[in-house]
Design goal:
Number of strands: 10
CATH architecture of the largest domain: 2-Layer Sandwich
Number of helices: 9
Strand order of the largest sheet: 3-1-2-9
CATH superfamily of the largest domain: YebC, transcriptional regulation domain
Shape: globular
Order of helices and strands: HHHHEEHEEHEEHEEHEEH
Largest sheet: 4 strands, antiparallel
CATH class of the largest domain: Alpha Beta
Strand content: 25-35%
Structural class: alpha+beta
Length: 256
């Protein structure tokens, strides 16, 4: 089951160059609002809401802010606020790299304009719906962080219906990402937790079917700057791209 995994490598490389920033309170609160709106406003009966709340608490969002976000999603807190929409945007980075953006917005025009500006300033361009999404597949990911034995992880992953896993080590922190079908994410998360593995969080993520290796330092630097610019926007929840950077380019980016 274990093996070379491009989707884990991309995430690891982003972490090494600190291109991915922590989610803002706004982004995490919006995720709670949408989760509560799409299902019951009770985390015990809504896996999406439960995971959104766990991420918010880990980021230090106060309980009253979390409760307010749940109430907004359930429609029991005020009535004058604009409704948030889940929208997927697509575009190209330097060298034609495919980029997929998941956003939550109450103003499509503002979000599209912000994304278009970020792309333009960093050598890319915002594309039409469907231009790159066919290169990605949505999967469920359970993230582990802490001490565990790989043999036990393999057995637990099989029991939970996982497709694959990848061991990751960033700054001496042992972790792993376990991949499964979207419909099996809750079952896998529960199985790994019940077996005592150090589950940190679970999420849905778009995974590139194939990746493009980037060895040119300038292109790598431009791509990382573009990803960082996109992720910094409040309306943006997640960004996925289909590139893989060579170790030499990573080291050059860090020292630049």
């Amino acid at each position: 089951m274990a093996g070379h995994s491009k989707w884990a490598n991309i995430k690891r490389q982003k972490a090494r160059v600190d291109a991915k920033k922590g989610k803002t309170f706004t982004q995490l609160s919006r995720a709670i609002i949408v989760a509560a709106r799409n299902g019951v406003p009770d985390p015990d009966g809504n896996f999406q809401l439960r995971t959104a709340i766990e991420k918010a608490k880990a980021a230090g969002i106060p309980n009253e802010n979390i409760e307010r976000a749940i109430a907004k999603g359930a429609g029991t807190y005020g009535s004058g606020e604009a409704k948030l929409e889940e929208i997927r945007y697509e575009g190209y980075g330097p060298g034609g790299i495919a980029i997929l953006i998941e956003a939550l917005t109450d103003n499509r025009n503002r979000t599209a304009a912000d994304l278009r500006a970020a792309f333009s300033k960093n050598g890319g361009n915002l594309g039409e719906t469907g231009c790159v999404s066919w290169m990605f597949a949505q999967k469920g990911i359970v993230i582990l962080e802490g001490e565990f034995q790989e043999d036990f992880l393999l057995e637990a992953s099989i029991n939970g219906g996982a497709e694959n896993y990848e061991l990751i080590s960033v700054e001496d922190i042992r972790s792993a990402e376990v991949l499964t079908e979207v419909s099996n994410l809750e079952n896998l998360n529960r199985t790994l937790s019940q077996l005592g593995l150090p589950v940190k969080e679970a999420e849905l993520r778009w995974i590139p079917e194939n990746t493009v290796e980037v060895s040119d330092f300038q292109q790598a630097r431009s791509l990382l700057k573009l990803i960082e610019a996109l992720e910094s926007l409040d309306d943006v929840q997640n960004v996925t791209a289909n590139f893989e950077i060579t170790d030499e380019s990573i080291d050059a980016s860090v020292s630049a």
